[in-house]
Hints:
Number of domains: 1
Structural class: alpha+beta
Distance between the termini: 24 Å
Amino acid sequence: MTAQLSHNALGPDAGVGIRYCLDGSLFNIRHLEVYTKTLTTQVIELQYADDCAIMTHNRESMQRALDMISGIYSSLDLQINTQKTEIFVQPIVPPIEAPQFYINGDPIKI
């Protein structure tokens, strides 16, 4: 599924950027401050067992990701249980009305 859920389809604002360093001491924070020796990757989803966490920066990217995942799961003959599906929104200042998301036309609990 990860191969099909790509940044090209979701846009540049999908996922959360993570910087990491593969050389040097694991606990040497100075390595992360040097941009020439660090790598950056965008993490869109985290999966564990039958759970999936999707991370985006705006509501449009989240709805696109939900639509793509729903389509991918349908092609694999899997179903998303919309009764158990929840979306967590990190509030911003000033607070805005919580967006509404849908999977196959069914609203998701925020």
